[in-house]
Amino acid sequence: MPLGLALVLALSAASAGASVSAPVAVAVAAPAAKPAAPATTEPSKGGKGRQPRRPWYREGPESKRKFMIGLAGVIMQAPPIRTEVVYLDPRDIGRSVAMGGLGIFARWRAKPIFALDLDVRSGSVRYGRSSDVSVSQDQFLADLAALIYLGRGDVAQFALSGGVGGMASIVRYEGSDDATGRQLWGSATFRVGAEAEFLFKRIALVLSFRAYGVMAGRAGVQNKGELVERAGNPLAPTAPFTTMLVGSAGIAYRF
Q: Are 224 and 182 in contact (CB under 8 A)?
């Protein structure tokens, strides 16, 4: 082969190899990952924002207003008198009498679960007036008690109470001949009861129901007046041991 022809063939082969392009790599994007689901929390069994109920024996936070003073309407149910000074028609007496009156009270909330209560109460009744005589009875009761609060809500409060005190009783007689008389005696008392309070900021509604045991000092009665002297200055017109039920409803100021 002539040298010129061989040189031409060699150059043609080199140019043909250079014209072949290199393979192109194609990048395939991986599938995008799914976004994570937002974390969720289960609501508490007690409900949103509700605190678990506190047992009654745990005191909890103290109140900012520890003192209370108020006025109450009072009803006393007690046994009637059995007097020897004048004659009373049994139809005017019955087995019990209801006395209406007023009371004043003060409470000091020493602890959320404990309070001291001071009460002064009165009650009056007038027995059936006949053409012959008229008899009226007044009672003045004072006692000091301790309260244990079993229910302590934001508005309603419930407590049991127990205490001791004293009572003064006065019976006045008026005869048909304008003669008069009076008997005065004292008694020791002890009480148990239930108390309820409904709190509205500085004002409270207070309800109470109590049972009193009364031990009368019959021999220590003070007799005065012509009617009593005619009867020979008898003992106090009550039994040595009696019970009395007292209910009240009142309003108080808290500070």
A: yes
Buried residues in 95-108 as b, exposed as e (16+ CB within 10 A): eebebebebebebe
Q: Which of 122, 143, 136, 144 is nearest to 76 (CA)?
A: 122
Within a domain: residue 23?
no
Our CA angle for 157, 163, 169, nearest 5°, is 115
Q: What is the pLDDT of residues 186-222, one digit of tens each?
A: 999 999 999 999 999 899 999 999 999 999 988 889 9
In contact, 80 and 96? CB cutoff 8 Å: yes
Tokens of 56: 């009654």
Residue span of the structural domain in which 167 resides: 67-254
Residue 34 has pLDDT above 50, yes or no: yes
Q: pLDDT tens for residues 6-23? A: 544 554 554 544 444 444
Domain count for the chain: 1
Q: Residue 234 is part of a domain; what is its CATH number?
A: 2.40.160.20
Q: Could you tell me the pTM of the whole model? A: 0.73
DSSP state of 233: S
User: pLDDT of 63-109, one tens digit each?
Assistant: 688 999 999 999 999 999 988 898 887 777 778 899 999 999 999 99
Residue 18 counted as domain residue: no
| C-alpha distances out from residue 152 to 52, 106, 131, 170, Å | 14, 19, 55, 40
